[in-house]
Design goal:
By secondary structure, the protein is α/β, with parallel strands linked by helices. The protein is built from 12 helices and 9 strands. The relative contact order is 0.13. Bound molecules: ligand C2E and calcium ion (CA) (3 copies).
Length: 268
Amino acid sequence: SHGHTVYQPGMVDRRSADAALADDLAHALDHDELYVLFQPIVDTATGRTLGAEALLRWEHPTRGPIGPDKFIPVAERTGVIIPVGLWVLEQALAQVGTLGADRYISVNLSPRQLREPTIVHDVLAALNRTGVPATRLVLEVTESALVDDDSGIAALHQLRSHGVRIAVDDFGTGYSSLQYLTRLPVDILKIDRSFVATMDGTPSGAAVATAIIYLANVLNMRTIAEGIETTEQAEELRALGCETGQGYLYAKPLTPDALLSRLSASLG
Ligand code: C2E
Ligand code: CA
Ligand code: CA
Ligand code: CA
């Protein structure tokens, strides 16, 4: 590197591509290009909605929709995830009134957000501003966010002492040892979609899900299965002791209006 970039067609400098996307993303927040969808989390035995997960969407003015799998990692590397993540939290808390009853809202918290020294204050301030009880918020963190981040773990302990519940997202896909789980302030393990997808009625197809459900029971945690697409998967999960899940079988991520109609219909 000689202090300048030589552009060659077909060759993309990741840092400048990231920077362009990150600039657009910072702009997106100010120009209403971001919105949040809500995927119901259901009791698979009754179909009743127990809560909803907030999932961020970006409609780029020229590039069209950009998926979170593409822009969240960029936002994470550049730090734009901090204002964007807090905005998602506010949007999600604003939906709690729509949810009614005792339903909860689940919000993804990125590793970068967890490392922010002000994260506990920011979450509690958002709860205060919106008047939402802490017990109706679930924060989803990934395993990798928890490894080697003692201050992040301390932040989760504090949030949990206020009543916020903590879920480990994509559980089982990280590279951490299981031992760490016994030390963590965790209420829920989310069984990753990849382990639900292998469920085919055979013991080996259900091996990882079986192990996660067993572990959760021993550690007094709940489980939520992700990416349930077939009734067979739902039934097999129930037989194993996991009765809470989300997936296209029940509902895709919905706009607030669509969520409201679903909740007011008998689908509940
Ligand atoms: P995730 O947290 O694991 O979210 C679940 C993803 O699975 C969502 O993808 C959801 O739309 C998708 N999904 C749900 N049910 C099914 C199903 O039955 N089949 C299949 N094939 N997929 C299903 P989405 O919305 O594209 O989000 C992708 C990832 O982006 C999320 O994975 C999460 O890691 C990240 N993300 C989304 N919104 C936010 C956010 O506000 N903050 C942060 N930090 N990350 C976010
Ligand atoms: Ca999640
Ligand atoms: Ca997940
Ligand atoms: Ca995922």
